[in-house]
Every structure is written in C-alpha cells, then in structure tokens.
Predict the 3D structure of the following.
Amino acid sequence: MLFGLIVFLTVAFATHAIVGVALARGFADVGPRAGLWLGVVFGLAPDADFLFPAAWGWPFVHRGITHSPLFALSVIAGTYAISRSRAVAIAAGLAIGSHLAIDSLSPMAIPWLFPLRATWSPGLDVHGVIATTLLWSASVGVLAWRTDDLAAIEQWLDRSGGVRRRQSE
C-alpha cells in the first residue's frame, strides 16, 4: 500500500512538473533553462502543502490554501515584483495555473473561493493512467510545436552516443 502511494505521488508530481514546463516553455517568452526551472518549481508549488505538519489543520492541509486561486495570484504577483519580468510572471502563472486546473477536475477539487471551504469538481480521474498519458502527450506536443527543445534533446543524445540514426543510402 505504501509503495502504491509513493508511485502515485511520484507520477502526480512528475505530471504537474512536465505540464508546467511545457506551458512555461511553449507560451512564455523564456529560455530553455528558465522555462525548465520555472515550470518545475511553479508547477509543483501548490504541493508544498505536503510539507505542512498535520497538526496545523485547515487551511494548511493538502488542497488547502496553496491550491487556491488567491495563493496563485499572490505567487504570480510576488514573482513579478521580484523579477520585474512579464515573461517570468507569465511562465510562473501558466505553471501554477496548470496545477490548479488539473487538480480542480479531480474528485478532491480545490478551494476556488478560499477562504471559504466551498469546492466543486466533476470528479475526473486526472491522475489515472489515461489522463496522465493524455497530459504527458499533450505536453510533448506543446514542446514539439512551440519550441525546439525536442530537437535539442535529440541532438544532445546523438552527440553522446545515446541515439544513432540509420543512414539510408
């Protein structure tokens, strides 16, 4: 049972990071490294609530304050205030927003009207095999369509001997 939970959380965290990176790189004017870091950090930021001690209680619980639009807007405003870059703030907003959008569709939902505990959700299995496959595929599609990141990875692998193309003559 513990092993299953660890696998579930690992895949869920990876999904939020991958979607965050794809959106940050695909739709914000940031470079590859900045897009990677911003996508991962802000794609995972709402799950910082896993670090809160259980004794703290509401709103410092999973899917509490850190999963609210109010938190996301505060983080985006803080990111802009620190970086003074619209592109960085947009990348952060896309990454954190993707996390909230995905989790808002799950049965557990998010507190849309925080500090009120009101939630609503269609109850979709957004962290199941089918949805995860679709989210990862869409993320790779965004990277292929909107960036040259996949080509750069292929070139890097080709140089390091990881991938060899057949030469057709």
About this structure: The chain has six helices and no strands. The radius of gyration is 18 Å. The chain has a mean pLDDT of 91. The first helix runs from residue 2 to 27.
